[in-house]
What does this fold into?
Amino acid sequence: MKALNRSSFRRSILFVGLGALAITVWTQTNTPAIAQEGGGLLDIDIGDFDLGDDTKGAEQSMSYEGQVGQDAANYKPGTPVYITHTKGNISVRCTDSPGIQARINFTIEGTKESAMQSLGDRIGIRTYASNSQGSVKTSVPGKWSGIDDITVPLTVNLPREARVNVTGGGGWVQIVGCTGTVKATTRGGGIYVDGILSSFDLSTNKGDIEIELDSTAELTSTSRATATAGGVTLRMPITQKGNLNARGEEITVDHLVNGTNTATRVQGTLSDSGPSITISASGKVAITTPQ
It folds into this structure.
């Protein structure tokens, strides 16, 4: 397993007594800071200021930025990959590269340097692979005193043939370029999926779902999408076979369906018998052809 871990601090200071004068300082550099007031620039030596926590006449806010990651080169394409990240957005990209590459680029906003660095040091990621499966799991602690906000997006690169299984939490999920099966669930964001997929199983408690099947794709196994508080858009080839069951606030279907067709429910057979395709949403449902 190959691991990566690096981070840096940025400190912004607003000097109240001087009006709209702000300084941004990257702690790993010794070059002069650039301050801007009105339309002009002022060159200021960092050494002219006490940047401690008790700076008088200044309001301080800091950003602690870093990256953690781990690779698993021995992942076997075509086997399942289980990705779990419940504290931020998830982006999965299927490419021609081998193995699993996983990264978190985090940003911590706050006012207490020691607390921010301590939290950043506790953000972790574990990537695992064997002949039968792969996995990516993250560890992100909650906020404590001195921490205003945490942003922890996860990016995972996989081979195109990966069988993707994502469990999210408070962010959106994006899975692009895959050629196998995709399963994803999240509590607080939308889901976007595209590729030459053979099946999908997607659900979100808050947000829209968008599925863009390649013009050469054919669903061959049971597929479903559920948006508890949102809409669903499914773009699939006009030649897709199967049994469609769609429910929503308002439904539009470009495909010919032999069965029930109402404003809120469409159920029946597509061009021929095939896999079950179930779409359920509280909002609008649109089933169209690929763009």
Remarks:
- Residues 8-63 form one domain.
- The two ends are 40 Å apart (CA to CA).
